[in-house]
Amino acid sequence: MTAQSASLAGLDLRAEIDRLRKEKNAVILAHYYQKPELQDIADFVGDSLELSRKAAETDADVIAFCGVKFMAEVAKILSPQKTVILPDVNAGCSLEDACPPEKFKAFREAHPDHIAITYINCSTEVKALSDIIVTSSSAEKILSQIPRDQKIIFGPDRHLGGYLSRKFDREMLLWPGVCIVHEAFSETELLKLKAQHPGAPIAAHPECPPTIVDHADYVGSTSGILNYAKTIDADTLIVATEPHIIHQMQLAIPGKTFIGAPGADGNCNCNICPYMALNTMEKLYISLRDLTPQIEIEEGLRLKAKESLDRMLGMASGTVGMGDLGAR
Ligand code: SF4
């Protein structure tokens, strides 16, 4: 037991978090990849696009973001007047790490006739260097609005970019980042599992490599996979994304069986996101109690990053077009 958890021993964390949420006028947002207890205590559980929208709309004074750092930064970019807290400030993302802003800037400068469509899983600095942000649930709708003769850089996830490139039959320059979680699924183990459950469809996130996506009956974002699970007739579904999403499936469709797709060791434990897993009930409690760690973003950087995020929110809801993308 750590000194921190010892000092919290005996506390009813659920009740304390509830008390602090009211006292501080806080809203708790949680991503589908969070531990079930954090999903259960959240005011809203969703994917990146849904959480961005909630962050932009909320009238709470405090946003407690149970997710990873780039998500909490999006909340701060969209709601700068709010206090945004992240239970563990070390909750990063392998895609963000794979795309250092100075290298991305140099890549953009080497391809001045390309626009940059960038997955939301990146730093605020990279958002500020991008033209349009996308999430896995908004990417197809946004890409379909880009003229076919417009050249595109897509980063930082080469698997999502490759999936979109194949689906839309258009070339894109792909940044070579990957999600370490989705990269860890094993095609061999997936096929073994499918042989054991021949009637079970496979749902996969487009962050998975093509060796997994090519076997999927459905490919989509976390919220897309959740909706797909609600529509299928089969009583078992194989799920190739971070396995904590299965908690929402079990709540929504209790009669069905959901099996996490395996990694190379034959189980799905290696597909638990180590960054998302840093957040805990204890850290959420301390974060709400002390209003720390807080997300802070320099105002000039925030405004630049907000342009590409606003373009995503507008294009995803159909309220604005691509517009004139000025030089960056
Ligand atoms: S699951 Fe992958 S993309 Fe999502 S936060 Fe974890 S490392 Fe990043």
From TrEMBL:
Binds 1 [4Fe-4S] cluster per subunit. The keyword Transferase applies. Pathway: Cofactor biosynthesis; NAD(+) biosynthesis; quinolinate from iminoaspartate: step 1/1. Its cofactor is [4Fe-4S] cluster. Pfam families: NadA. One of its GO terms (biological process) is 'de novo' NAD+ biosynthetic process from L-aspartate. InterPro entries: NadA, NadA_sf, Quinolinate_synth_type2. Its EC number is 2.5.1.72. It catalyses: iminosuccinate + dihydroxyacetone phosphate = quinolinate + phosphate + 2 H2O + H(+). GO terms for cellular component: cytosol. This is Quinolinate synthase. It comes from Novosphingobium sediminicola. The gene is nadA.
